[in-house]
């Protein structure tokens, strides 16, 4: 798995999750339960990980959605 992006924005993460799911790109949202460590203030970003063989397709998908600036 390779990191596609990281963010603290739950709306953005949900949108990217939906884009990847609709495109059939398997992915994993890491660090979703880290809020326990940061006291639920949202300072630790969540990461979206994608299979290395599909990372370029996922990056292209985010660029097409005008989210290229969010890529890791």
Structure summary:
The protein is α+β, with helices and mostly antiparallel strands and 72 residues long. It has helices at 10-22, 35-38, 55-64; strands at residues 2-7, 27-30, 46-50. The protein is built from 3 helices and 3 strands, in the order E-H-E-H-E-H.
Q: What labels describe this entry?
A:
72 residues; alpha+beta; 3 helices; 38% helix
Give the percentage of residues in beta strands.
15-25%
Low-confidence stretches: none
Strand order across the biggest sheet?
A: 1-3-2
User: Could you describe the largest sheet, including whether it forms a barrel?
Assistant: 3 strands, antiparallel
Q: How many strand units? A: 3
What is the share of helical residues? 25-40%
- Overall geometric form: globular
Secondary-structure element order, as H and E?
EHEHEH
- Compute the separation of the termini in Å: 13 Å
- Total helices: the number is 3
Radius of gyration: 12 Å
Mean pLDDT: 90
Structural class: alpha+beta
Description:
The chain is of the alpha+beta class and 72 residues long. Helix content is 38%, strand content 21%. It is built from three helices and three strands, in the order E-H-E-H-E-H. The protein has a three-stranded antiparallel sheet, covered by helices on one side. The two termini are 13 Å apart.
SSE order and pairing:
Blueprint: E1 2-7, H1 10-22, E2 27-30, H2 35-38, E3 46-50, H3 55-64
Antiparallel strand pairs: 1-3, 2-3
